[in-house]
Specification:
The two termini are 26 Å apart. It is built from 11 helices and 9 strands. It has helices at 9-14, 27-30, 64-79, 116-121, 157-169, 180-189, 213-221, 232-235, 248-261, 287-296, 301-320, and strands at residues 2-7, 32-39, 84-85, 98-104, 124-128, 172-173, 195-196, 225-228, 266-268. With 322 residues, it is α/β, with parallel strands linked by helices. The protein has one domain (2-321): Metal-dependent hydrolases (TIM Barrel, Alpha-Beta Barrel). It is 35% helix and 12% strand. The protein binds zinc ion. Zinc ion binds at residues 104, 176-177, 198, 274. Zinc ion (ZN) binds at residues 104, 176-177, 198, 274.
């Protein structure tokens, strides 16, 4: 069974486009049981994320009044998919696809959090306070290569309140896209395991979006998990947007994480349909090939079970228990 930390299928459906990577008709053969499905409000000024290379300026904030109706449309697009909405780890089962409703950037949450509970009631179970842009709650990491996430300030007062409210409701707080100061603010404040749904190792690829060893250690010490991102620009040592990148680059980041954090803290966070992927993978249909590559690299049955779904299910169970 595969449980994955991030995809942007909903954005494609909202735009009326077919899926490129998350072709649900491939799910059964690929053993794909779902994972985090992002509600992401696109910044108008940002180029197509599948063509992002090197440095992209930080986009302008999107006000709540503008974001809220778009989030409703994105949510409707998710609800129209042939998937279950996951609110319990028991929702992940062989033979069907379960979607964790995830906000990538909390622009659609009112600054006073007045609509957070109604979103929870409708199935929201994961929030990244920011995408790579500032909002009421925090500041995101601008895309840079090579680069550091140590740009800008941390959580605002509203951001701290959001983290605490998520903790008490049992909503996962995602660290991917948060800048350095925001990461450590969440690490200090949150009572849940720390999670980065789709981020790679900065030691192997010096993209600003990737995590340093210190951050990985904090996630490990909290009992959390990191999803390895399959985007070629976050995998490769040279940061180049080259879709001929092999899946061995994914294995390289998995291996590094296992060595640094231990096998209990490593998972997948593909970024399918949200970034440029290795052609060799061919979307979710490539998961079995990737699992074979992990086995060939020496990961035994126990490790494969944890990396493919066990770690996600453990952390979700710990986080959603409120
Ligand atoms: Zn993302």
């Amino acid at each position: 069974m595969i449980v994955d930390g991030h995809n942007d299928l909903v954005l494609h459906r909202w735009r009326g486009e077919p899926a490129v990577d998350v072709r649900l008709e491939d799910a059964a053969a690929a053993d794909f049981a779902g994972g985090f499905f992002a509600l992401y409000i696109p910044s108008p000024s940002v180029p197509d994320p599948t063509t992002i290379e090197y440095t992209v300026p930080l986009p302008a904030p999107i006000p709540f009044e503008q974001a809220a109706p778009i989030a409703e449309e994105l949510f409707a697009a998710l609800c129209a998919l042939p998937v279950e909405r996951a609110t319990s780890v028991d929702d992940f089962q062989d033979g069907r696809v379960a979607a964790i409703v995830h906000m990538e950037g909390a622009e659609a949450i009112a600054p006073d959090l007045s609509n957070l509970e109604s979103w929870y009631e409708r199935g929201l179970r994961s929030i990244g306070p920011v995408w790579s842009r500032p909002n009421h709650f925090a500041e995101g990491v601008p895309f840079r290569f090579p680069g550091s996430s140590d740009v800008g300030s941390g959580l605002t007062a509203a951001g701290s309140a959001l983290v605490q409210a998520c903790n008490s409701l049992g909503i996962l707080v995602d660290l991917s896209h948060l800048n350095w100061a925001g990461f450590w603010d969440v690490a200090r404040l949150s009572t849940a395991p720390l999670v980065a749904t789709h981020s790679n190792a900065h030691a192997l690829c010096a993209a600003s979006r990737n995590l340093t060893d210190l951050q990985l250690d904090a996630i490990r010490d909290s009992g959390g998990v990191v999803g390895v991102n399959f985007a070629v620009t976050f995998l490769r040592e040279d940061g180049l947007l080259d879709r001929s990148t092999g899946i061995g680059e994914i294995v390289r980041h998995v291996d590094y994480y296992v060595e640094r954090m231990g096998v209990d803290h490593v998972a997948f966070g593909s970024d399918f349909d949200g970034a440029a992927m290795p052609d060799e993978l061919g979307g979710i249909a490539g998961f079995p090939k990737l699992v074979d590559a992990l086995r060939a690299a020496g990961h035994d049955d126990d490790a494969v079970e944890k990396i493919t779904h066990g770690n996600w299910l453990r952390v979700l169970a710990d986080t959603w228990r409120s």
